[in-house]
Design a protein that fits this description.
Elements: H1 11-18, H2 25-29, E1 40-45, H3 56-60, E2 63-73, E3 76-79, H4 92-106, E4 119-125, H5 129-140, E5 149-151, E6 154-156, E7 160-166, H6 171-176, E8 179-180, E9 183-186, E10 202-206, H7 207-210, H8 221-236, E11 240-244, H9 252-263, E12 269-271, H10 274-283
Parallel strand pairs: 1-2, 1-12, 2-4, 4-7, 7-9, 9-10, 10-11
Antiparallel strand pairs: 2-3, 5-6, 5-8
InterPro entries: AIM6_PI-PLC-like_dom, HAT_RTT109-like, PLC-like_Pdiesterase_TIM-brl, TAT_signal
Protein name: Altered inheritance of mitochondria protein 6
Keywords: Signal
Length: 287
């Protein structure tokens, strides 16, 4: 699995590429950015919470999507990849919800100053999905005007859009709601079904379960056509596309695969290497 997206081996490299001096949290809250103002909406920070400065490192690199794994412990939503990583001080509120609310307030209604796009907060449920989602829903309700909301058949866009991934049991209570502040992360099995984009706005799947090509040599024509077909089908229904388990070690193979994803108009590129994807997207002049 050396090629796939795991970030522990990249933490030091990513910090070095990003520079050794991090912005103070107060500057990030105020919306200050080290780079140009244009966010990279296609950039997805996989396992974002494992970076030295969760959320803020991704925002400093202008990412349009961040991912947080949650565990329900009592009535708390703790952040971590594995149960042994959990720390009572590292909650969804402390690492993501409170900082995002403060930043949006400082930026007069947006995550990125003078940019009205919605930051995707992909929340990956690691404990039983139904009970965890119901508790998560109560947490999200405390942040008025922060989240994109579905209400009685209409979607009202907010500065942050929560998308629920992970344990599939979350789907049942979500589908039953007439008002919710989160949306469902679909799989290939949801592509072309009756599930609307107002419920499943994102189709995500494991790259290696759908394609054999990992960036070395030519992309097989049949696989390229399959990729383009997936994107066309999703976009025709107003859905976006993301793949995880793509190569994430810097080099020609990763660049080749990222290039094919851009050419196919895939909406999110998945990485643990924030600086690497930022540089790639800037070089290709794409958001």
């Amino acid at each position: 699995m050396a090629l796939t997206t795991r970030r522990r081996a990249l933490t030091t490299l990513g910090a070095a590429l990003a520079g050794t001096v991090a912005l103070p949290a107060t500057a990030a809250l105020a919306g200050g950015q080290r780079h140009g103002p244009r966010p990279l909406w296609r950039a997805h920070a996989h396992n974002d919470y494992e970076h030295p400065r969760p959320l803020f490192d991704a925002l400093d690199h202008r990412f349009g999507s961040v991912e947080a794994d949650i565990y329900l412990v009592g009535d708390q939503l703790l952040i971590g990849h594995d149960p042994e990583d959990l720390d009572p001080s590292r909650t969804l509120e402390s690492l993501y919800l409170d900082p995002l609310a403060a930043r949006v307030k400082a930026n007069h209604g947006s995550v990125y100053r003078r940019q009205r796009g919605s930051l995707q907060l992909l929340i990956d449920i690691k404990t039983e999905g139904s009970s965890t989602y119901l508790e998560l829903d109560r947490h999200l309700a405390r942040y008025k005007h922060l989240f994109t909301t579905y209400a009685h058949g209409r979607v009202f866009r907010g500065p942050v859009t929560a998308v629920i991934s992970g344990d599939r049991a979350a789907r049942t209570p979500m589908e039953a709601q007439t008002v919710r502040r989160a949306f469902y992360d679909g799989r290939m099995s949801d592509l072309g079904t009756s599930a609307p984009a107002s419920f499943v706005p994102l189709i995500s799947d494991n790259w290696t379960l759908n394609f054999t090509w990992l960036g070395v040599g030519a992309f097989p024509d049949a696989e390229r056509e399959k990729l383009h077909g997936i994107v066309r089908a999703a976009h025709s229904r107003g859905q976006k596309v993301r793949f995880w388990a793509t190569p994430d070690v810097a080099g020609p193979a990763r660049d080749a695969l990222w290039g094919e994803l851009l050419a196919a108009d895939v909406d999110y590129l998945n990485t643990d290497d924030l600086a690497g994807l930022e540089a790639f997207l800037d070089a290709h002049r794409t958001a």
